[in-house]
Design goal:
The complex is a heterodimer of chains A (170) and B (557). Chain A is an alpha/beta fold and 170 residues long. Helices cover 36% and strands 14% of the residues of chain A. Chain A contains six helices and five strands, in the order H-H-E-H-E-E-H-E-H-E-H. Chain A has a five-stranded parallel β-sheet with strand order 2-1-3-4-5, with helices on both faces. The longest helix of chain A has 17 residues. Chain A is elongated and about 75 Å long. Chain B has 557 residues and is an alpha+beta fold. Chain B folds into three domains: 145 residues, 2-Layer Sandwich (Beta Polymerase, domain 2); 39 residues, no CATH class; 319 residues, Cytochrome-c3 Hydrogenase, chain B. Helix content of chain B is 40%, strand content 17%. Chain B contains 18 helices and 17 strands. In chain B, the strands form six sheets. In chain B, strands 2-3-6-5-4 form a five-stranded mixed β-sheet. Chain B has a three-stranded antiparallel β-sheet with strand order 10-11-12. In chain B, a hairpin with a 6-residue loop joins strand 5 and strand 6. Classes of the chains: A alpha/beta (170), B alpha+beta (557). The interface between A and B is large, with 44 and 51 residues.
Amino acid sequence: MVNPFTYIFRSKMTEEFEFSDAELEALGSELKTEVNKVFGHSLAIRELDSGSDNSTEIEISNLTTPHYDIERFGISFVASPRHADVLLVTGAVTLNMVEAVLKTYEAMPSPKFVVAVGDDACNGGIYKDSYAVLGGVDKILPVDVKIPGNPPSPKEILRGIFALVKKASQ
Amino acid sequence: MNLSKNTNDSLISAGTRLRDNRQITVSPTVQATQYATDLIFDVSGEEPQITRGKNHEFYIPLGENEFLKIVPALSEKGFVLISLFCVQDFEDNPGFSLFYMFRLSGYTDVFAFMRHVEMETTSIAKVFPSACWYEREISDGFGIEFTDAFDKRRLFLHEAYPEGFHPLLKSFKNGKIQAVKNPKEAYPFKQVEGKGVYQIPVGPVHAGIIEPGHFRFSVIGEPILNLEIRLFYKHRGIEKLAEGKRPSACIPIAEAISGDETVANAVSFCMAVEKIAGIEIPTRASYLRAILLELERIYSHMGDLSGMITDIGFPRMTTPFLIHREKFFRQNELLTGSRFMRSVIDLGGIKKDIPAEVLSKLAIYLKTFVPQFESEIKDVNASSSLIDRFSTTGILKKKFIVPLNLTGPIARAAGASYDVRLDHPYGIYKDKPPERAIKTTGDVLSRFKVKAAEILNSATLIQELIASIPEGAIVAEVTEFALSNIPHGYALSMVEAARGQNLHWVYVRNGLIERYKVRTASFCNWQAIEHAVLGNVVPDFPLINKSLNLSYAGTDL
């Protein structure tokens, strides 16, 4: 028979992370307080790539990895725009993506917010004079917050989301 | 049921005629130029005019009759079509020059056959199936019609682009155009008909944090009967954007081809320009470039390993790889100041030296990383439920490798040995060849194993490079003037990016880029997915897709 005390006194299963980022933790807890207040404990984000070089996508998805794990701050990435409060858009909006971008935005329930992530999404970046793009996301959608960078780091993206939550509370 | 106009038929027939690279009997002691001369003489009775290129490639202009005769012979001899592109008014020769780039196993040189055409020409896609996308790309870019092509649909120009618009023509000056509002015509997907067959359209916007592309499945119940992909939603006009710019100003453009291939594309672009200008980069710079290239391979493969496990819903196994990946991003930042190692590679070498203590810290980190990673891979191999999902899923058959020019880990997981670092060595790989990791099954499990093995090989190689890196300059001893005034010329360069063979062809005229052709491994490898998913169930599609991990940005340009 198994002794139940072995379960009580055995060492903890989870490992200690050797990394700890005080700045991230502080930002996260501030963000969590605001998300609780403004978005009723949960902020749903839909990510949309309108023509980025894929580095921005990588940094956004890094937000969900163990080092950042932003779900603990009340933020989740959702699969459908119909479930989203915020649209994170990356890329300079290519002509081939215009229709899909507009449809995605239209599918979101109001009130809704748009955040442009990365230099291309903010103002077209290196592509701004190309025939194949419109320019920044603000050419077709009302952009609430811009997060510049090539690409912005996960922490910078988190700061941008914080700025959006602040803005939404006003 | 009726599979109307399916490329499968033509692929299989070409595949049976072509042999995989290791079975071909050619004598590497015969010079590549001699081999090509003999071959063309045998077929057409004419002596070709061969020009040596600047970087192990040579150019063979052919008349129309010789060209048509030589194409089937090339296929029989096992030549692999690695790229096909068009240049307008090449070397003041009015009209269009098509460059058919081939490689042949056993030769490090690349064979470039040139064909001069007007607005109409003929297709070679029935002999070389991979030509199909290239020809559609040329039709979009230049308006050249391939009269007997079996697929004449537009490729990177979607419905928003007006008819008759061809951005790569010299007469078009880059600038905003009037997009078509509410286009009437829908893209004609191949129709698969029959009892019980239905279509599942997916995309361009997908459910995850991922790039856009459209997948059109035809299924009966759960198994996939046919898949057609439609990409190029992210077409940003990279090739046109580079035209008329100074080569030094194009490095950021090369870096933006695909974010997670930043170093590979920047290095490849710089190598081409350096060859044109005859610049030799210092040994230390070669070492540093190789270290960064291998780091890029590691973090890219690491993302694939975690992604494959994520897609079977097994987070406990995913976590260690995600943690490693973030640590590698942080190593990248320590080494170069950028998590994606941007703005580091420069013409003539690299921008900023990496101090010895930073390199030795990386070596120490790798020493602890290797045994840890090995034990995690052991855990993966010990999980029967995981092996059950990976094994026999998404098999990529070896016969597609040559006709579609599939390269990189996905081809090496299906029995090919090709690796640009070893078959067309460049930079420091000439002296420090990496180990080949080859599996033969071609399923998701072999791709997982090949990528895991390549991570270990890269880690070993980086440690070796750090141990033997010489002191010295990091940029070539040429004047600022020489770097900003690249002489007239053209050159091809290839690198082994994390996804496989990336090819860059640069043509400089009056110190400015006249034509920049990029072909990433993804452009070819995407076509593998249409074959790898057949007969698999739809829920396995995300797993197969992740195991191939192809770049949309690098394909769409």
